[in-house]
Amino acid sequence: MTITKETVEEILWLVSDPEIPVLSIMDMGIVRKIELAEDHVIITITPTYSGCPAMDEISSDIKKKLKNHDIDAKVISVLSPAWTTDWITANGREKLEKYGIAPPLSHTADKRALLDNERIVKCTNCGSTNTVMVSQFGSTACKALFKCEDCLEPFDYFKCL
Amino acid sequence: MTEKENLYQYLLLLGDHVMILGHRLSELCGHGPSLETDIALTNISLDLYGQTRTYFQYAASIKGEDATEDSIAFLRYSNEYRSSLLVEQPNEDFAYVIGRQFLFDSYHLLLLEKLVDSNDENIAAIARKSIKEVRYHLRFSSEWVKRLGDGTQESHDKIQKAIDYLLAYAGELTTSVDLEKEAAKAGYGFDPEQLKETYWQNVKETLAEATLSIPEIDWSHSGGKSGIHSEHFGYILADLQYMQRAYPDMAW
Q1: What is the DSSP letter of B28?
Q2: In this predicted model, which residue has the larger pLDDT, A63 or A53?
Q3: Of the candidates A155, B96, B148, B210, which lies 20 to 30 Å from A59 by C-alpha distance?
Q4: B48 in contact with A at a CB cutoff of 8 Å?
């Protein structure tokens, strides 16, 4: 079998972030480069947050899934250019919302939501924007905790980075 | 000091600050005053440890031999750590935790704003990554300084007491030691002395907004950056290094 970038990409779509299992790492924009070498492929990834504990797992999952297709992979992690929430695909944002995590707003709206407590983050349960921030830091480094004042459910908001 | 050794020591200085503060915050895991603040403080700790790893991984590659990020983090003696005395100050109470965090975050953000232009690609990359996280840290700590200062009489008194104590340690952050001056001269680092004015201006502005009085001090405890630490440091190292000292080379 000849390995093409497309086959590798297809396999990478099956690797997910263990903290957000509905999202593929391709949706997250974590995969920066796929290179084909003589007898292996080189995958370049970038962490969402410096301390993201999922990086090691993602890296070994990439190698494992590719190995299942007899492809040897080398995974390199780079810091620059730094990951931004803008790299999450439109499809990824939709999946996030369905999963119960409000997707990041634009940078200026994000500031208004987190700093001025402006009610603009949409509840993932009922769709109301009558929501308040409970904490700037949520269940993982990339999320803030919100509560809906209409349906009273708590939910996560993916912070802009 | 050779140029290579200076770069290595400078990376230790950058990494040690975030590691020791990250350790202090990690002590609060499960002990925060409320669930939200507990999670916030441990999230910040995690960010700081992530940053530490990137500095030490780079430092290990400079050092060569058998150096790894772990040997750099765990196998040095107290006088080889280059963090300022501020970050090793104990948690005492929530006001001390917030005061310490605020005084460090204010400096950290200013420093990273300069390091993003470092002529060393790795340092610039680490700074560009870290700065996004540190903006959230400073937002969190300064909001809390204001809330405590402008809150009840009790919260005001507590944060005032903490600030009065901690301010005597903050000066070391913006007082440069030789290796920082060398790093600045070579272009990969920045001389913190040049941040002094902006630093105090920013700090005083937030403290004033928090209705806190600002003690006038023109001196600072110092020594940490040169490896002379307070008694607290030995206890931190005992906690940090116990496993590696008792079971050399153990790994998860």
Answers
A1: T
A2: A63
A3: A155
A4: yes
Q: Which of B95, B96, B26, B22 is nearest to B54 (CA)?
A: B22
DSSP element (H, E) containing A9: helix A5-12
Q: In the block, which residue shows the tokens 């903050």? A: B170
Residue pLDDT, tens place only, B34-49? 988 999 999 999 999 9
Contact (Cβ atoms closer than 8 angstroms) between residue B189 and residue B118: yes
Q: Mutation target for B interface from A55, A56, A78, A79: give the one with most B CBs within 10 A.
A: A79
For residues B58 and B122, the answer to whether their CB atoms sit within 8 Å is: yes
Q: Which of A73, A70, A52, A78 is nearest to A61 (CA)?
A: A73
Helix (H, G, I), strand (E, B) or coil at A133: strand
Does the ipTM exceed 0.90? Answer: no
Helix (H) or strand (E) holding B113: helix B94-115
pTM: 0.90
Phi/psi at A4 (nearest 5 deg)? -115, 165
**Cα–Cα distance measured from residue B22 to residue B49, given in angstroms and rounded to the nearest whole number:** 6
Question: Strand, helix or coil at B206?
Answer: helix
Please check whether residue B164 is in contact with residue B92, taking contact to mean a CB–CB distance below 8 angstroms. Answer: no
Q: Is there a contact between A118 and A124 (Cβ–Cβ < 8 Å)?
A: no
CB contact under 8 A, B51 and A51: yes
β-pairing, A154-158 with A101-102?
parallel
Q: Which residue of B has its CA nearest to A140?
A: B43
| Cβ within 8 Å, pair A79-B121 | no
Residues whose CB falls within 8 Å of the CB of residue B21, separated by 6 or more in sequence, listed in order: B48, B83, B87, B100, B101, B104
Other Cβ atoms within 10 Å of B114 Cβ, number: 16
CB-based contact A59:A77 (threshold 8 Å):
yes
DSSP category for residue A103? P
